[in-house]
From TrEMBL:
Protein's UniProt name: TIR domain-containing protein
Matches recorded under InterPro entries: FxsC_C (IPR026367), FxsC_N (IPR047603), TIR_dom (IPR000157), Toll_tir_struct_dom_sf (IPR035897)
Domain TIR intervals: 1-149
Pfam family, one: TIR_2
Amino acid sequence: MLYFFLSYARGPDDLFVRRFYNDLCSEVRVHAGLDRDAEVGFLDNHNIEPGQNWPQALINAIAECATFLALYSPAYFLSQPCGKEWTMFDLRSRGAPRGDEQPVAGLIPVVWLPPRELPEVAKTVHYDLDVEEEAYRRRGLRQLLRLQRMHDAYIEFLSMIAERIVSAAAVPPPRGSTQLDFDRLESAFHPSAAPDAGQGSWTGQTIHFVIAAPSRPDAEAIERDGGFYGRDPLDWAPFWPVQARPLREYAERVASELGFDSRFTGLDRLGDRVKVAQQNNHIVVLLVDPWCADLAAHRELLLEYDHHREHVSAMLVVMSAGDVQTQEHSARLAGLMHDTLGNNERRLDEVMLRRSVLTGPAFEADLAVVLAEARNRLVADGRVFRRPPPGQYAPRPILEGP
């Protein structure tokens, strides 16, 4: 039996979250009297094996876990996947669709970073744990982990949470269904509703990913290992075979957890996507396989774009450490990138330009930082578009002279 499922929004704090998860697993084993190797918890990037369908793995874990730990933070309640995880456990715990007034059984909120406001579904769940430490109440668990002087308070917190998990696991909710379509689930934090046309709207939540990579036939034409590619450039899987799924799936996951709506296109639509983004306060991220600069048609498109004034918000060049062929040609490929996208390299700062992403986890961590920073810059520098409320309007008044 899984004693707990840890639901959290991925981002720059992932290392701290993983530390908390590992410490909590150890503490739960002690309180439950289990061997040190017993599997007691689930953390998505800890338990999912390479190549496994990650939504199904989540469904299976939520269907059998005794408790559901929700790591509250501003990013958590913006995350569509986190909202879907909540929905799944909520449905399982109630045994019926949401809508009654009973709290979700087995749901244990943990304040990672205090959110400014809670969605309606979370307001009925008591989360003011009996923790005396003022730092937790004001700043959350994140603060206890980051400050050495809070170590004793952190240990006490772990013991309290572990005791609560083991106690709740004595009467777990009924096992849930594993025959669910994760993509079709509604997020508990984002219920379907028509937007109020009278409210101002910030349109910076859309992100355009442009994938600059060859197809398999194009790659094989330059004697590049075709295993990393498919029939379409969007099938590019640079971390194959360790992470066999296309890079766009990992990018979409990171973006979704940060509240972005993702759109993907190939290199041939780069200029068009940049113009659309500039008109609507969208974000454009260029994901680059350096091998595309070895192909004349791809290199020409990149050079044409690099000479224009319109620019992407960020660029990540992937050079997988596990790709022997890429590492053997790394110096040459880096030179090609500089010759082809030199203007963009000079314009982008070190936060928004990643010249050599080596692993899948590094890609996800880098992308999370890039997207968070891109959003901050849009808020600071972008335009807010406001739609007028519906209805009839009188003619604009015009002052007339005497």
